[in-house]
Every structure is written in structure tokens, then in C-alpha cells.
Design a protein that fits this description.
alpha/beta, globular
């Protein structure tokens, strides 16, 4: 039987690396996954692409976006639905708390945290690009190389779920 198509709309390259290395292999068990970057696209292009996927390709979708400074998840979903009329199902909008960088950090092995000069965090929910930059500067690595190192040392899904509430939500609700 052919797997159903799942289109995951992601913001940019940082999201893509995490999805390709960590999440897509899990999702591929059930779906034929397509990742599509929307960060530099106009709203009309995003709507057109998503409507094509939903209606012509008969695909499920997940629209992934950072919570950033929005007061709450519900408000961020409403904002996105106002911007993009193709987001017709709020359950298909995944809000990352606070930024995708927090998901990267959620899975880092305890030993690696200590190597970076930190105790492993209980939660990464409030971490963002600035936290990654602090650690990266200590290592004197490029951002891309540092993110690759983090993914190479992504311990396991269960620890990442314990450390980040939105990562847990994504795994529990979208992954088979």
C-alpha cells in the first residue's frame, strides 16, 4: 500500500536539518514526507502550494512555526490563520516553543552539555538562538558546523521530549 503524502512546511534551513536528521526518519514509517521551506515566500505562494498539496496531492500537512514573542500558542495559530487562508485546520499548525533551536538543544547528550561547560538543562522551552550562539562561540565553530555537531550528539527522542514541551507535543501528535 502506498504511504500517504505528508507535507511539512518549515521556516528555513535550521528547521530543515533537524527535520531531515531527526524527525523525517520517524515520519517516513507512515508517510511519504515532503519538506518545503516557506520563510522567503509570499503568503500567496504559500497558500497556492499548500492548497495544491491538500487538494491535488491529497496530502496531510503540518505547518511549523516558532512561537517567538507571541503571548500564547492559540494566539500564534490565529495569527497564522489570518495570514494564510490555506491553514484551515488549527490542529495542523505546530507551534515551536520558543524557537526551533530549543528542539536542537533538547536532545543534546548530557556528556556533551558538560563538555560545553553547562549542566544539562531540565527544560529547553525558553532557549533560543541566543543560547545556541553562547555555546557556539565557546567552541569557535560556524553555526552550521555547530548545529551539525548537536545533531550528531542528539541523544534520544525520549530525553528530548522530557526537556521540551513542544517537541513532545510534535512527537506524540504527529509521529507514528
Amino acid at each position: 500500500m502506498q504511504r500517504k503524502r505528508l507535507c511539512i512546511l518549515i521556516e528555513g534551513d535550521g528547521d530543515k536539518e533537524l527535520f531531515v536528521r531527526i524527525l523525517k526518519p520517524i515520519l517516513d514509517r507512515k508517510y511519504a514526507v515532503v519538506l518545503w521551506k516557506y520563510a522567503e515566500k509570499k503568503n500567496e505562494e504559500i497558500n497556492e502550494y499548500l492548497n495544491n498539496e491538500k487538494y491535488k496531492q491529497n496530502a496531510d500537512y503540518i505547518f511549523v512555526t516558532d512561537k517567538d514573542k507571541s503571548p500564547c500558542v492559540s494566539e500564534k495559530k490565529r495569527e497564522k490563520q489570518k495570514e494564510l487562508n490555506s491553514l484551515d485546520d488549527p490542529s495542523r499548525i505546530m507551534i515551536v516553543i520558543k524557537e526551533i533551536d530549543s528542539w536542537y538543544l533538547a536532545g543534546v547528550k548530557d556528556e556533551k552539555w558538560r563538555e560545553y561547560g553547562y549542566e544539562p538543562p531540565v527544560t529547553t522551552d525558553k532557549m533560543d538562538k541566543g543560547d545556541i550562539e553562547k555555546i557556539r562561540r565557546k567552541k569557535s565553530m560556524s553555526r552550521i558546523d555547530f548545529l551539525q555537531e548537536i545533531l550528531d550528539n542528539f541523544d534520544n527522542i525520549e530525553i528530548a521530549k522530557q526537556r521540551n514541551i513542544s517537541f513532545k507535543y510534535f512527537i506524540d501528535n504527529y509521529c507514528p
